[in-house]
Amino acid sequence: MNTTSSSPLTSAGTGPADSRAGTSRAGRRSSNRLLTILLWMVALYFLLPLVWLLIASTKNNADLFTTFGFWFGQDFSLWSNLRDVFTARDGLFLRWSLNTVLYAGVSAGGATLLATTAGYAFAKYRFPGDRMLFSIALGAVMIPLTALALPTYLLFNAAHLTNTVWSIILPSLVSPFGVYLMRVYAADAIPDSLLEAARVDGAGELRTFLQVSARLLAPGMVTVFLFSLVATWNNYFLPLIMLNTSSLYPLTVGLAQQQAASAAGGGSQALFSTVITGSTVSIIPLVIAFIFLQRYWQSGLASGSVKE
User: Are residues 124 and 250 in the same domain?
Assistant: First the structure.
């Protein structure tokens, strides 16, 4: 009797709730599957060109156009392609590589220093016009660098700095996004009480910045450094309009000029495999930099996402 009378009550009291909970769980599972599929598609979108580049680097010119793009050719020609990359045009690829390291390294270091000091000043000091200046820096983030290339060229041409290393390094030192990022990072990472304690102990502003604040800003500085390094390393348009001497080219412009000459048939030797292998070699330093600095980069990006 008890079993017979309690069963309908239990079913009437929990049935709709269980049904709603089951529907909610099914909805979450469906949403998770959709997000997983979307993430896999995005990952493939970014990884497939890299996979194609790595495989194409192992092919000679004949296999490059006669075999499937995502599989290896009949001959494994990676080593001969690498030899051609570093010996073509009297080893000009090595010169382009050194130029790229110089441009990207100096520009990233300088941009990190300027962005850190500017962001720290905007975050921790109050001075006349600070909000207006930061608004101008924030607005500069919205301006595409391509739109500034021609005015920059005219300014550097008037100063007789075109076709020099400074025509690449000086414009790359300016990083409005880096200033914004360091301003947000410094506001959260450095407590005002810590700065007050350093001042009470007799430390000047410069000593406080170098010995106290800079240590706390290190993850953010690495993030800005990586962003600036990648931006300058991959910059193509600015070196293209600023430089007209091949010995000053970075890898982006040099490989593009080499590919254009090969596609136009200007040379007696087809250089498609050489250009592709050179492109593969050119991304290796960036991959190494991300592998060694990614933990600082991740902590730098995540630090501003939680407000205590």
Answer: yes
